TrEMBL record:
Keyword Acetylation annotated: yes
Pathway the protein takes part in: Lipid metabolism; fatty acid beta-oxidation
Entries under PANTHER family matching the protein: ENOYL-COA DELTA ISOMERASE 1, MITOCHONDRIAL (PTHR11941:SF45), ENOYL-COA HYDRATASE-RELATED (PTHR11941)
Natural source organism: Cyanistes caeruleus
Function in brief: Key enzyme of fatty acid beta-oxidation. Able to isomerize both 3-cis (3Z) and 3-trans (3E) double bonds into the 2-trans (2E) form in a range of enoyl-CoA species, with a preference for (3Z)-enoyl-CoAs over (3E)-enoyl-CoAs. The catalytic efficiency of this enzyme is not affected by the fatty acyl chain length.
CC annotations in GO: mitochondrial matrix
Name of this chain's protein: Enoyl-CoA delta isomerase 1, mitochondrial
Enzyme Commission code(s) on record: 5.3.3.8
Membership in a protein family: Belongs to the enoyl-CoA hydratase/isomerase family.
Length: 243
């Protein structure tokens, strides 16, 4: 799957819905045993959740949007397929969540590309299931420091921390992803799938059990004037940085 929503592959409601439908189709296709996720937009894997979806919209819209974010994660993190992220650009916040939800992460070895859960820098809080996914990849201490500081880690640091599994030159990224996929697909599906379920089930179940409460929390949180102000200021900062 190649993300192609210029300029920055931000995860809008429409993008998330299409992504989830795409994953569902592949999941239901018995001929498909694995998926490599990458980007067709130069230098950007995904800029994370589309901030405009969280600014100045109705309570109903926030609810619909958050349900779509949850749905995407439940499908990807809970997928029976082998999932490999070929991270060919920067990948903040929700973009990082997508990579973290895969079975294996390969990143282009460009120190200008960064990845991490930077929510704290926007004045918002990564939800518990973002945090759980992160902890399951890098461990508690690294996740705690990185989340509190809202760190975006340049590719070499991301590899040192275990946030990505390996770095390769950009031109070799897809070749390497295909080789990793072949290695993972060499195992019998049922054994690999049951093992994956065993490792991820508790974290998935926790969101399933608290899904409606999580949506309510999101709506309450994002509707606060202080949070709206932080998001608006962040968007302005992005625009100013450009000019
Ligand atoms: C007890 C506690 C209770 C807690 C309850 C919790 C409940 C919920 C909490 C809420 C959690 C919400 C979770 C959010 C996760 C996210 O994903 S938030 C999004 C974070 N994303 C970012 O910070 C990335 C921001 N973007 C960038 O850093 C850069 O754009 C880039 C590095 C990706 C690319 O840089 P460059 O190539 O230089 O492009 P730009 O000129 O910066 O951008 C082009 C264009 O796109 C717009 N844009 C960029 N990112 C986004 C985005 N994420 N959403 C919307 N729009 C974006 C940018 O403004 C530019 O627009 P214009 O061309 O100027 O119009």
């Amino acid at each position: 799957m190649k993300f192609k929503s210029p300029p920055v592959n931000s995860l809008s409601l429409e993008f998330l819905t299409e992504f989830s439908i795409g994953l569902e189709k592949l999941e239901n296709n018995r001929a498909c045993r694995g998926v490599i996720i990458t980007s067709a937009v130069p230098k950007i894997f995904s800029s994370g959740l589309d901030i405009t979806e969280m600014c100045g919209k109705s309570v109903e819209h926030y609810g619909e949007f958050w349900r779509a974010v949850q749905e995407m994660w439940l499908r990807l993190y809970g997928s029976n397929m082998v999932t490999v992220a070929a991270v060919n650009g920067s990948s903040p916040a929700g973009g990082c969540l997508i990579a973290l939800s895969c079975d294996y992460r390969i990143m282009a070895e460009n120190p200008k590309f960064s990845i991490g859960l930077n929510e704290a820098q926007l004045g918002i809080v990564a939800p518990f299931w973002f945090k759980d996914t992160f902890v399951n990849v890098v461990g508690h201490r690294i996740a705690e420091r990185s989340l509190q500081l809202g760190s975006l880690h340049p590719a070499p640091e991301a590899q040192r921390l275990g946030l990505v599994d390996e770095l390769v030159p950009e031109e070799k990224l897809m070749e390497k992803a295909a080789a990793v996929m072949a290695q993972w697909l060499a195992l019998p599906d049922h054994a690999r799938q049951l093992t994956k379920t065993m490792m991820r089930k508790a974290v998935l179940d926790r969101l399933v059990a608290h899904r409606e409460e999580d949506i309510k929390n999101f709506i309450t949180f994002v509707s606060k004037e202080s949070i709206q102000k932080s998001l608006r200021m962040y968007m302005e900062m992005l625009k100013k940085r450009k000019s």
